[in-house]
Amino acid sequence: MKSFKGDTLSWKLADGCIELSLHRKPCNEIGSATLEELERFVEAHESLTSEAHALIIYSEEKAGFCAGADLRELYSRSQETAASERVAGVRDFLERIHRVMNSIDSSPLTTIAAVHGVTFGGGFELALTCDLIIADKMARFCFPELRLGLIPGFGGIPRLKRDLGNAIVRDLLLTGRSLNAARAHAVGLVSQLAAEGESLRVARSTAAQIKKFDRDTGASAKRFIKPMPYEELHREIEIFCDLFTLPAVEAGLRRFVESTDTQPYLP
To answer: If 0-12 CB within 10 Å is exposed, 13-18 middle and 19+ buried, where does residue 91 land?
Structure first.
């Protein structure tokens, strides 16, 4: 399938580049509906790789790239199920989202996240699966999970440590503070800075540059310089599930759901 338009995301293949656009209001929160369509994309991606050289992931929503997991859905489901079933449901969701993220991370294509605005939590983790992050100057990156009594659960810790090392991981994870685009570029998280509203244009220009070179050579280089941290990814799921049973998590989710702020995910 060379194109698809769903409720939360769409994709198309054009001129050797796959473009995956996120368009779930208000800020592309990742819940069951998004996960199902991401799984559908992964199936299509496998058949499209022979016709493509690059993948661009971007958002059509003004608020930003992605605010992370759909915490309202997570809280609602946790209230509807018995305690013994909650962790099983969370584990199933995490294992599914990890399969999606790992597939994008290990894609033979050169993958580019074109981000703007809010790039938090699971959205940050999605961006980290990509080989290159191109950010407009208003982008902000954050792991706000600490406020919920949790750690990032979509694979963000091992991927960020792989790319930048423990110091940046500790800063983001333990303080809950955000990085602006300029700081993210300075530490090596962002490969290119773009003017406000220009990240997708720059990503497309970068994809056109990538097309000049042999795709198999690029795939070989990527396998060499971008190892998959499978063991740590598995440990992350285990730690997340252990933490999810604690009372602090339910309290944190309840505070988020009951918040009257327009954008409660902002730190």
So the answer is: middle
Burial of 143 (0-12, 13-18, 19+ CB in 10 A): buried
The rounded average pLDDT for each run of 10 residues, N- to C-terminus, in the chain (267 residues) is 94 96 97 98 93 97 96 84 81 97 97 97 98 98 91 95 90 91 96 98 97 92 95 97 90 84 60
Which helix (H) or strand (E) segment holds residue 64: the answer is strand 64-66
The whole-angstrom separation of Cα 208 and Cα 113 is: 15
Beta bridge partners of 111: 55
The full set of domains in the chain, from first to last, is 3-199+212-258 (3.90.226.10)
In 3D space, the residue among 45, 52, 29, 202 whose CA is nearest the CA of residue 115 turns out to be 202
Straight-line distance from the first to the last Cα atom of the chain, in angstroms, rounded to the nearest whole number: 39
Per the structure block, which two tokens stand in for 80?
């509807």
Cβ 179 vs Cβ 189: under 8 Å: yes
Give the residue from 19, 1, 17 showing the smallest Cα distance to 9: 19
Return the ∠ at Cα 189 (arms to 243 and 31), rounded to 5°.
45
Residue 45: both structure tokens together: 């991606």
Of 157, 120, 122, 159, nearest to 142 by C-alpha is 120
Q: What angle do CA 153, 89, 121 make, to 5 degrees?
A: 25
